[in-house]
User: Fold these one by one.
Assistant:
Number 1:
Amino acid sequence: MGRESKTWRWVARIFLMLLSLAALLPFILLFISSISSENSIIRQGYSFFPSEFSLDAYRFLYNHIEQLLRAYGITILVTAVGTVAGLLMTAMIAYSLSRRDLPLQRLFNFIVLFTILFNGGLVPTYWVYTRYMGIKNTLWAYILPSLLVNGFQILLMKSFFITTIPEEILDAAKIDGAGEIRIFTSIVLPMSTPVLATMGLLKAIAYWNDWFNGMIYITEPKLYSIQNLLNRMLRDIQFIVQSADIASRVDIGKMPSMSIRMAIAVIGVIPIIIIYPFFQKYFVKGITLGAIKG
Amino acid sequence: MTIEKTRPLITQNKRGSKSKKLIFKRALPLFLLMLPALIYLIINNYLPMLGLIIAFKDIDYRKGVLGSEWVGFENFKYLFKTKDALIITRNTVLYNLVFIVLGTIAAIVVALLLNEIVKRTLSKFYQSVILLPALISYVIVSYFVVALLSVDVGLVNNTLQNVFGISKISWYTEPKYWPYILVIVRLWKTIGFSSVIYYAAIIGINKEFLESAALDGASKLQQIWYILLPQISPIIITLTLLDIGRIFYSDFGLFYQVPLDSGALYSATNVIDTYVYRGLLVLGDVGMSSAAGAYQSIVGFILILISNFVVRKIDKDRALF
């Protein structure tokens, strides 16, 4: 038995090492390409071992730092507002649904559940948001459509409340004269910080990474989030120059576009990579939260 | 997932002692707490559901949805006469089937391997690394793919040329390669996510049987096949069924961003979601686009009901309702 499990352990280690490499290598290629000189990229292509290094791409992007900072500012603002508001709204409705003395409980549960089963799709959604809500080219376009609250998370949080918050505590608080809202803010929310943190993280990642809302509702380059700037530059690397003020425009012909293309993507992923170690634990929890019993 | 069944309404038992009015008055704060999310669901979900009638109308922007002419099933007739309808349905379903089969097998294999790593710190490290691709958007993934596949400066073409002497391939105009590329990219991005789910399931099972089987001389493969897999099979089956319930929907970013929306690749990359998007925002063909969207919504709804029905039979706790 000893020898067999040793072989297995080695197989597992080697295989997982290879898999980890496969996960990491694209990030490394991206980074090395971003610090390769334009000449070396043209000569030998994007490579792990460029013949010449250069920071030209970053120098170039530094000239457009205003655009980058604005895009980042929009992403951060949208992520913060969307995550906090969405989380709070989810917790509020989930708490009410978890109460057994809520009148018409079945009806409200059904209203939430049905949104998971059936949806109108893009065309009517687009129609509602542009025609009736008027969110085109406003920051609401990043926050509202599809991301703010979803039925699945409501039901998940409801079952969390049912299983972890004992009714006795709620009853005791009521006897002490606390109102429903008070109970929610000073008992229920503090007791739920683990699930709030986990779900909040998933929401924040969804907001941070979303480019779809921006792509369909935002046409004004000044309102681009970082993902939309990246999305635009994926197809049109000169976009950042064209959308800049005339004064800061440089000769497009001299632009190191091959390395800039990778440098801009590096700028897009770096914040996530830096803070990943700090939220890694909650991320793993969040993934299993929706799928595993208990 | 655990979504508890509705608790009984105790208000029913108290009929007589309290009037209905009083019950509702007492529950007012609870209703208030629900209000923001309910308003949101109405705007974000229920109005668009009503908006499905767009598919049955000849939309005139000036007249709005309600004012436009009803045309019955004309938009659908038109859609299903094109060969697009067949292509997008085929692509959506086939890709999803491949993703489900390969994705599930790969995730379970990786989860089993993670389970072999005894040191918790090491297995946590591997988990963190293979989860990295799940953290980034498909826009970033597309940059990776460009670095690998662009014709002149891509790593793959240069390697093919320098090492194997194969001439450069124009990846973004050759549809025949894309089924493989999309499957690889999708596996790369999702394997960490799904293997962590199965790994958590494996950790959660009762280890007694495994230990006694090992003592009785069962080989590792026997232990996996006869003890581990049967124990996690309810999770495998339910997750697979839920995936089947969503087989009419696809990952928009994968099919739109990764091929860089290249028109030459549409035969291999067009799925219902990308078709609806292009119809609405690129071509401005609302009739066709809304018909395809409604087709997806309705078939998707039926599939989810069926899969949930089967999940209920197998494991009641995991069913959505």
Number 2:
Amino acid sequence: MNFELSYKPFGAFAILIEWPSIIDEVIIQDIVAFEKEIENKESVLEAVIAYNSLLVRYHEPILNVSLKIQELQVLYDLKRPIQKQSQKLWEIPVCYDLSFGLDLKEISRQKKQPLEEIIALHSSVDYLIYFIGFQPGFLYLGGLHKKIHTPRKSNPRLRVDKGSLGIGGKQTGIYPQDSSGGWNIIGKSPVDFFTISNEQPCFAKPGDRIRFSPINLNTFYQIEKEVSNGTHILRSKLL
Amino acid sequence: MIEVIHPGIYCSVQDEGRFGFAKIGIPMAGVMDQFSAHLGNSLLKNQKTDALIEVTFGMAKFKFNIDTFICITGADFSQKLNDDFINTQEVYKVKKGSILSFGKRNHGFRTYIAVKGGIQSEIVLKSRSFSKEITSKIRLEKGDKLSILAQKFIEYTRFSKVKIYESHFLNPNLECFPGPEFDRLNNSQKQQLLMSFTISEDNNRVGYQLNEVLENNLAPILTSAVMPGTVQLTPSGKLVILMRDCQVTGGYPRVLQLSEVAISKMSQKIRSDHVKFVLNGQ
């Protein structure tokens, strides 16, 4: 299916392509498919995917904007749906122990739901990876259950540990590095989301899916050890 | 090899930046003032892509443990080679054992030390630009040693020098284009946007926040791409000009986009300096 897209110049070197302004699985699949047609073009410096947009940056200034837009429209018509075989479901171990889930009790109180129910709601969804941004390896995930949408904290923490799993409004995600952050922290994963020394520093890509699988503290420390030894293998399957 | 005797406030190695990895959230990084960096490299007949040392606000001191040629561009901080003051935008022969130091500020904020053949620091994801979480270092520290290529002084090579381009440092005008959300501003907001602004103390390689507040009733946008030179209107009404180390995506309305030349000019501004956005073609 093809959407009515808007194309506009963004500075002298880039075109911003926009889809309807909603977070939607069909839209992101369409963006990912379009990006595949664009990414290997020689004139393209960089393509940046987000929820409802694709930024195409060129090496050279764009002299004729309408011609550039026509070229892109041709590519959009040529795009093929992404092959299912290339998309993966990743199983991410997460420990929802209260020693990591600093805000779990507060969410449980606000939502008047037992802890177990919140964890069950959070770990029973196959989240779609929309795009990666904010920090290297930070996955923007869609699919958080409405019952556990929780506004960002009014006072952000100055330090959130690497691996922390948070809820910020309608979004959920993992901090790939230590950072400051305003999301409600509900657990921690021992897995690395960004390893610069790997050929692919980030294992996941837009269009893949993530499922959080609850583990206890012992397993957390065991996997953490495996990760630091480089012996841990993430479980995944083709979608 | 170049040894860092004193790292000053903030020095890093930068080239043109890291491209093709925004997809995994990696910032572009790269020299802040591309205009001055390119000038230094071209005066030395280097490649445009060769890495340089970016010195923020002078004060640094380096020792050359190898014969080479250098060219200083960008900010002028009364630089000295051993005991002699040297000009910016002019190539100098540097003998093994020489000391390069910086003193009183004359103009600008960021100085580039271009070295014949470029700085040979580690390449990570196709770039030598220092970047958080990417390169092993994010700033130069005392005692750091940077490899450079050996040069022979035998043949006399003539290098040109160029006149200092004053407006690059002193002119407040920043050429820019309307950003993707520019048209959501009403006429009075558009007018306010084209008035004069001053630079706040909150400025670094990630971005420059401006002091003056704009009335802001715009709704946030769905997180979308940003790039160096994007001007965001934050919920408080303050403007932020994103610079080379900025994130790849953001959720604030993007009201303007600076031209490449304007990003380079911006890089030479310091706290309290005035800037004025000038829409392209007006």
